[in-house]
Structures are given as C-alpha cells and as structure tokens.
Amino acid sequence: MADEVKLFRTWSSRYSLRIVWALKLKGLEFDTIFEDLANKSPLLLQYNPVHKKVPVLVHNGKPVCESLVILEYIDETWNEAHPLLPKDPFQKAEARFWAKFNDEKLLPSIGKASLGHGKEKEEARVLIPEYLKHVEEQLEGNNFFGGEEIGYLDLAFGWMVYLIDVLEEVGGTTFINKEKYPLLSKWIQKFYEIPVFKESWPDRDKLITKYQNYV
Amino acid sequence: MADEVKLFRTWSSRYSLRIVWALKLKGLEFDTIFEDLANKSPLLLQYNPVHKKVPVLVHNGKPVCESLVILEYIDETWNEAHPLLPKDPFQKAEARFWAKFNDEKLLPSIGKASLGHGKEKEEARVLIPEYLKHVEEQLEGNNFFGGEEIGYLDLAFGWMVYLIDVLEEVGGTTFINKEKYPLLSKWIQKFYEIPVFKESWPDRDKLITKYQNYV
C-alpha cells in the first residue's frame, strides 16, 4: 500500500513549516489542507481534539500532533532518506534540549519583544541576547545545527529564517545582527537557499500585515 | 569502563522523581546529589547553565537536562532492561504527545487550581475535568499508560501518585475521585505499590508544609 500523508496547516504557522520542510527533505509526497483558524474544519477538530491546532500529520488515517513529536515520527517512520536526528543518544538529547529551549524560551521571548507591551516587552528584550548567544554557540564548527547537514534542530529553529526580519520590522528593533551573531546570520542564509524549500516561504508582505495587527 | 551516573535533584522535585524511577526500573546504580535551590551548587550551574534547574543526569561526565529528554536518553542508552518507550513510531508519538500535555496543560492547571488565586484558579478548575477525562481514556484496556508494563508515559504522569492528594488537601478540593476516574485511581494504587519505587516517595507531611507555604 502506498503511504497516504496529509498535512493540516495554515499558510503562516511556523510550527507547520517544520513539517513541510521535514517532508520535503525526506522526499515524501503529501497532500496539504490549509486551515482557517477562525473556522476550523471538522477534520482538524477530529484529528486534534485536545489542542484543536495545526500542524497535524495524518499518515494512513492516523493523526500525529505537536510539531516536535511529528518531526520525530517522520524521522522514525521514514528513517533512510535524510536522517533528521543524530544517532548518538547524547547528541540526540542535546538536539531535543535546544528544540525545547526554542519553543519555551527563545520563540516566546522574541514574540513578546516585538509584539508585546510594557514590562513584558522590556523583560523579553533583556533575555534575548543571552538566549541568542547560546544558539550561536551551537553552530560553532558546524554548517547547521544538525552538523554538516540540515536536521531536526535546524527545522525547530527554522522559523527565524523567514520571521526574524518580519518581527524586527514590525517591532522596530534588531534581534540578529551579523557582527554579533555571524554564525547564525550565515545559517539563516544557508537555510533560505536550500533548493527543496524554495516554494515553502510565506509571503513577506502578508506576514508584515498579519503581525502588525497583533501589536 | 563502568558507567558513572549522577543525578542532581531536590527531595521533592516531581521532574526529578521521573528520573529516579527510570533509573530504578533499569536497575542502574547511581549517585544522588541533593540540591538546595536557594543555594545552588557550582556543579549544578555548570551542568545546566541555561535553566539552572534540576533534574540533571550526568553520565560519564556528560550532563543531560530536561526530564523528558533525560527519560529518552536513559531508554536509548540502556535499551535492554525494561524498555520505557514503545517501539512503534505511532505509539511512541502518542506517548510523547501525552507527556507534553501533562507538562504543559495538566500539571500547571492542577497547580493553579490548588495553589492559585482568583480568576486563574477558577479557570484552571474548569479545565481539569476535561483534561483528566483524556488521561482516563488513555488507560482503557491497559494496566499502565505504557500498556502491560510501566513505561515512559507512566513516569511522566507519576507525580500524581504522591502529589494529587497533597494538592487536594492543601487546595481544599478533590481532583480525582474513584467513581469518576476509576482507571486513574487504580493506576495510582498500582504505581504506588511497585516494589523498586518503595524508597522513592517524598515525606507527605513535609510536602503538605511546603505547599501550604505557596498558597
């Protein structure tokens, strides 16, 4: 039986793009269902009744939710083409640690620092340089967070590639400059130029409009 | 070379206990370093410079942080004795999904519902029955969340075994009653009676005192 792979996403969801990129790296064919979060489809509610959120990957009728969980599922299920996670348990633990750090610390702080207000915004802006320093260090001696090749942790951090400069513009600030974070800046460029991701980037003007509505 | 395994924890940390239980299920010898979070040791700060938190597992000098990441590390490193995660990628994804649900939804809500105040407390109390219903459903047809044997997801939910009735007493409410959640109630009893966990339970009176100070 041929695999049937469906991805429920929105046009701009940064968690969904991780899955798009993973499926493209694995060379998998898949159907995309674009959701309108103001009017969620009955299928999305059926497949993710707990969180009612995208992304959901449906593989041969079985739903998998939560983007980092989906990445691991994809890597374990289609394990031959382009491995995403390292084989070594310690390196794997490090990749999982930093992906969690991204989701719980870095990404929310950059959101608050660009779109937030008052004390929350100020506090986030203080934290970000230390967070980004940690991230920059993970690239020392490597092309990608995954090493020579792009991998799981790159996909977790991948939202920065297309969203940092949007959030910088909307928030009227700079988070990543080339002098302070040279490795991260180079990584953003390398990630952006990966041929199989070419069609994946959300429209920048639409993103600017979307996030301006949040401020 | 014999493995050197050290666990940095506190006496009551519910995330640390997951690791204690996992190491005991695997039959591993390990040294325990009890931290005082008001006066963290230089070693803890060295091993977990990002979060400065317990638990940290140090295996042959290498630190692994974040309890769910540590559980996967332990299972991958010592994979023969008592497997913690299912082999099947879909079942593994389900276990990871519910562990994340515990950490992000169930556990914080029960904390707020017992120790919080005002609107935050009221909102949490409304959510909990729905959350617990999802958890109860995961036990249908099974002894443990891991199936026939105790596993990764049991350890993630394991804080309920010794802490729910403490939080119920301190918060003056009942979260889990036997009539509404019979499977979860039975699971708590079964988990509590596992022989290798016998020495692991934190002192109940000390827990009551600790959490009363939070209200």
Automatic annotation (TrEMBL), chains A, B:
GO CC term, one of those recorded: cytoplasm
Keywords: Transferase
Keyword Transferase: yes
Its EC number(s): 2.5.1.18
Region forming the signal peptide: none
Catalytic activity: RX + glutathione = an S-substituted glutathione + a halide anion + H(+)
Origin superkingdom: Eukaryota
EC supergroup of this enzyme: transferase
Limits of the GST N-terminal domain: 3-82
Any Pfam family matching the protein: GST_N
Alphabetical list of InterPro entries matching this protein: Glutathione-S-Trfase_C-like, Glutathione-S-Trfase_C_sf, Glutathione_S-Trfase, Glutathione_S-Trfase_N, GST_C, GST_C_Tau, Omega/Tau-like, Thioredoxin-like_sf
PANTHER family registered for this protein in UniProt: GLUTATHIONE S-TRANSFERASE, GST, SUPERFAMILY, GST DOMAIN CONTAINING, GLUTATHIONE TRANSFERASE
Protein family (similarity comment): Belongs to the GST superfamily. HSP26 family.
UniProt name for this protein: Probable glutathione S-transferase
